[in-house]
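Hi, here's the filled form for the chain we discussed.

Project: internal
Contact: R.S.
Residues: 246
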Amino acid sequence: MKIIHKFQSMNFDSRNNNAIKYIIIHYTALRNFSLALDYLCNQKNRVSCHYLISQSGKIYSLVPDKKRAWHAGLSFWDSDKDINSMSIGIELDFSNYPKNNSYNLKMIQSLENLLMSLKKKYKIKKNNILGHSDIAPYRKIDPGPKFPWKKLSKKNLTFINTNIEKKYIIFFRKWLRRHKIYSIKKSILFMLAYIGYDVSLSYKNNKYFNLLLTNYHNHYLQNKYTSKIKIIRYLEIHFLNLLLNK
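And the returned structure, exactly as it came back:
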């Protein structure tokens, strides 16, 4: 795996001795690679990432791993708030413009190689390889519904659901009722919070709740299910997989 160190962004600071425990995947949302590179390296923008991957699959290192790149913004995962201090940020040259609107084979192969290397080097759990939309679900959608999470899961690079015995599902549903979690919405938010999501804005605001559910769907389900009931069934298995394999 070749990493190009030709360009550098000065948009970084210290990690304050925080260990690297997350990898966050983004897309640039800019018209082409050159614009993305300029934007990430411009000090006026105060935005950066550790790695930028082009449509041709070239990997550019813009900020050293040991430094705190500015890619996550206001974010949250599993009680962690300063995600920048404990993550590696990877930007993909992708947008809705014609020249870079696909996650092509070369790009994804390079991403997989980089993820495997970083995961091994920093002992990162596959559950902690996330999208920007996971850590900031109320304001971000990247890497978006087209991103091939399923392909990454086959390489053990992200979470994948495995079958759970029915007795555990039945027990969990009884547990919810016993703790007076009756509504579908509250059940969903309870499970999403356990997985790691920030659910704080979703209890009283249905717009935020729908954003949260959409971003969960785009990551873990994509085109698999569309009905809310089937999403809940999948979510139950996701929750129990994490709980039973802790």
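Let me know if anything looks off before we file it.
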